[in-house]
Amino acid sequence: MAHTVFALDIHDDLVTGVLVRQEAKSLVVAACGSADVGLQSVETAVTEVIARVGYTEGECRVALGAEHFYYRNFNFPFTDARKINKILPGELVENAPVEADRIVFDYLFAGTKEREAGIITAMAEKAYLAEQLQFLQGQSCDPEIIGISGTFGATAISGLAEVPEEYWYLDVGFRRAVLVVILVGKIAVMRPLVFDTALQAGFGLTEDGHEISVLHPENL
Q: How far is CA 79 from CA 75, 85, 121, 176, 182, in A?
């Protein structure tokens, strides 16, 4: 059986899934689908997408909406990752929007100089992640890593040839978006945005869930 990977992107407004298959040295899209959350629950939309792409078991990758994470940028007068790992938890105690024992966190280097390091930290509440993992495991999805929607696209674009070192990446959904700022080829800023593209620009899904129609692109 060919090796397949299921990628699932879960937002509060839109759920998207892609099933890819490894063929020789290439990845082939075997199936894809989306579901507008709308009046239904996110869980129902996820179940609909999983059924639409035909995923039943196997390796999967999951990205959750940026709106469920908190972000903080820090600058340190050193670049040693061991020192950052030691000091960062204390910094988050003072800067996290909720109690530090309620969150899990990870970080990326946003830029380094000779003796300085800038990092961007993303935090999520443990209870929310545990709830999501429990639901996903009930759908035969057991991701080893959970990412943040928007980071994968921005990182993939940065790896392409002839892409500038500095640009803004906007991942637009139906009622939310993620703004990712790339500086010197690295993610420097992430911010979730709220605006109703479905209302203002007439965003909507086709019946098969494969394409997005835009009735009023001039309003985007």
A: 10, 11, 15, 35, 20
- Beta-bridge partner residues of 4: 21
Q: DSSP string spanning 117-164?
A: EEEEEEEEEHHHHHHHHHHHHHTT---S-EEETTHHHHHHHHTSTT--
**151/61 Cα distance (integer angstroms):** 13
Q: Is residue 74 helix, strand or coil?
A: strand
The structure tokens 């709308």 sit at 38
Which residues lie closer than 8 Å to 186 by C-beta, 6 or more apart? 108, 109, 110, 111, 158
The Cα 205–Cα 210 span in angstroms is 7
Compute the distance between CA of residue 187 and CA of residue 120 in angstroms, rounded to an integer. 8
Amino acid identity at 99: E
Residues 6+ positions from 34 with CB-CB distance below 8 Å: 14, 15, 16, 17, 49, 205, 209, 210, 212
Query: What pTM was estimated for this model as a whole?
Result: 0.84
Question: Along the 220 residues of the chain, how does pLDDT read in single tens digits?
Answer: 468 899 999 998 899 999 998 888 888 999 999 998 987 899 999 999 999 999 988 889 999 999 999 999 999 999 888 999 999 999 988 888 888 889 999 999 887 777 888 999 999 999 999 999 999 999 989 998 899 998 888 888 888 878 888 999 988 888 888 899 998 888 999 998 887 777 888 888 877 767 778 888 888 7
